[in-house]
Amino acid sequence: MKYLPLSWTWVHTPAKRVTPAKMPPKLCSLLLLDQLIKWMLMTLIIPKRALDLFQIPKNVVKTSDSDKSKGKRKLYVGSQALGYRRDHMEVLSPIKDGVVVDWDIVDGIWDHAFRECLLIDPKEHPMLLAEPSSNTQQQREKTAELMFEKYNVPALFLAKNAVLTSFASGRATSLVIDSGGGSTTVAPVHDGYVLQKAVASSPIGGEFLTDCLMKSLESKGLTIKPRYSFKRKEIRPGEFQTVDVDFPNTTESYKLYSQRVIVSDIKECVCRAPDTPYDEKAYSNIPMTPYELPDGQIIEIGADRFKIPDVLFNPSLVQTIPGMKSFAETAPSVRGLPQIVIESINKCDVDIRRELFSSILLAGGTASMQQLKERLEKDLLEESPQAARVKVLASGNATERRFSVWIGGSILASLGSFQQMWFSKSEYEEHGASYIQRKCP
Amino acid sequence: MEAVVVDVGSKLLKAGFAVPDQAPSMIIPTQMKRMLEDGSLTETSLFEEATVDPVVRGFIRDWDAMEDLLHHVLYTGLGWEMGNEGQILFTDPLSTPKAVREQLVQLMFETFNISGFYASEQAVLSLYAVGRISGCSVDIGHGKIDIAPVIEGAVQHIASRRFEIGGVDLTKLLAQELGKSNPLVKIDIYDVEKLKEQYACCAEDDVAYEKTKQSRQEEQHTLPDGQVITIGRERYTIGEALFQPSILGLESHGIVEQLVRSISTVSSENHRQLLENTVLCGGTASMPGFEDRFQKEASLCSSAVRPSLVKPPEYMPENLTMYSAWVGGAILAKVVFPQNQHITKADYDETGPSVVHRKCF
């Protein structure tokens, strides 16, 4: 079937087709998976630039078919699949309190990412995974097992989130505040290693703030209609009317998920961290900001704009939001962000405290809130010892703040000196999954 | 010599010298027939052999067939001489795997020995063809549908969506429907394709679509082999399938809904700009009644900012939707090659195929 040349001078050797299996790891790209609580980012990397960046919400959807005897469930992954309403569809998240509880779902997410989003074969790509700073040995072993046995990756490395954020900003020692969807973690990094005993975390994250905002809006009488529940009809030419559509088989979890998506968008657009601690009386006369909901309704948000972000700094504010009392009872001892930072630094050696104070990094989705950096700096200046020079750093670009862990991993994996640190498949077969503790500190 | 612009689609390959505001000089089917004896592969069917589709769902899959096809296009069709190859610009669909891009660069430099190469995404090029750098392009092709928001020339990959349905699925649907209404007639898939192009149209809105289901208005059509079939409401079913994918058996929203959802993932300051500069392109989008239906569905969208389609400029040729990616490529070629922003032979020799990721985006 080949076309034979009649008279042609070949400059290079003819028909050199490089099959993917022969591609050396340097030329073929490295995959980086970042297990943030809320978002999972996958991409083929080039340093400092995410060329193909895919965000997959960590929530996955399953249908439970009541007449299936085996109880097999079908998983739908990704925001495109989640956006479509199906009967009996539940929204599940595999991670509870930072710990993976359902490995099948994680498997499904990775499968979707490799096969549908990135369109690659995991056999050909070494994998760098970012893990939470306080990950248990058992989870790491299970991850390694899953990666090597199911996906047959040639090499693996597990790096801590805090270390990668530190690399992204070009520092080997810093205090990393990672404020993501599920929780906020404060971890000091010294010379590229996380100081485990000083890691502190708080359950207040983006999702929690979204819940607060949702309860607050509901208590004011505003109903958030999920996207699937209404339709516009033309009753007369030129005149439109929004009509409610009812789907009786929609599960509660899906309805809640759809509402959360909308409220989360409100939060990202409208909320700002206040310059001073929130005070009911001072903010009662604030001008309202309008926001248009997907069904066309325009709502006005006033004091909530500042109250919700202040929950990060002052968790006792939660008690004033109607509907959130259950949280206030279960976790009364949650402290505000500045206090957690001070506590974490105080657990470190006296010698490095000064350096930690002067390089505090902000990372994560919630950290891209406006004015957060200024407020945090101000609060820390008040609480820190006099001699310390407090400096909070955050990259100006909101995208970079959100994906700084990923960017750090991208930088790490493309370093020449990193190439010998991979945990290869042959080592896994020789020593087993527990060897990962030695290879990936 | 002018640069050559090649837009390889699942059904048609558009190629020509980069002269903007003209249609591409070569529009040929991508499908090829395999011949067992030694000799050149051509697209005309002289023997009864298996057909080969080098491009599946927008991505190049069969590289040998692709090589032969490009050989035909460049040397026979466009008149290149061996030893004096010029510069070439390719278009990529959305989410092209990196391996595919690298392989294409390798094929061009090593087998065809070209002097310069550039690759760009089809979504961006379709916007250039109508004179915009930001907007949303909805590309409804033969093998796939791509919805891609573009801001200042950069595709927002986070918000873009790709669906594996296209003209080929509509053809299958039409064949099925005709089989139901004309059970005694056997129709070849190529004839169904031609019927689709001739007869398919869109109803004005879903109320009108329901009405067509009841009506008995039918037309007689004579097939090339003499058989006579009747086509009635199947014409509207095809057009409706894009707005109600449940007809195709898929669980997803209609195309306008998908567009709105995909744009809502982008940060809200750009929403207005994206929605007001929506471009429709692709062969399937040139169905009669599609644009009007699209506008109608868009006005049913609940928020204040609604998708509105961009009118192509007057100096552009008719039928721009069929090859707007090619025209955009011609415009880009006039900018990129003279300014030496493309990949030259020296770059390729020095760095290898991965240079495409660095220089072309």
TrEMBL record, chain A:
Entry-linked InterPro entries: Actin (IPR004000), ATPase_NBD (IPR043129)
CDD domains: ASKHA_NBD_Arp4_ACTL6-like
Entry-linked SUPFAM superfamilies: Actin-like ATPase domain
Domain of life: Eukaryota
SMART domains, alphabetized: ACTIN (SM00268)
Sequence similarity: Belongs to the actin family.
Name recorded for this polypeptide: Actin-related protein 4
Annotated source species: Nyssa sinensis
From TrEMBL, chain B:
Pfam families: Actin (PF00022)
GO CC aspect terms: cytoplasm; nucleus
InterPro entries per UniProt: Actin, ATPase_NBD
Record Gene3D superfamilies: 3.30.420.40, Actin, Chain A, domain 4
Subcellular location per the Swiss-Prot or TrEMBL entry: Cytoplasm; Nucleus
Keywords: Chromatin regulator, Cytoplasm, Developmental protein, Nucleus
Top-rank lineage group of the source organism: Eukaryota
The keyword Cytoplasm is assigned to this record: yes
Recorded family membership: Belongs to the actin family. Plant ARP7 subfamily.
Function: Essential protein required during embryogenesis and all plant development stages, probably through a chromatin-mediated regulation of gene expression.
Protein name: Actin-related protein 7
Organism for this UniProt entry: Nyssa sinensis
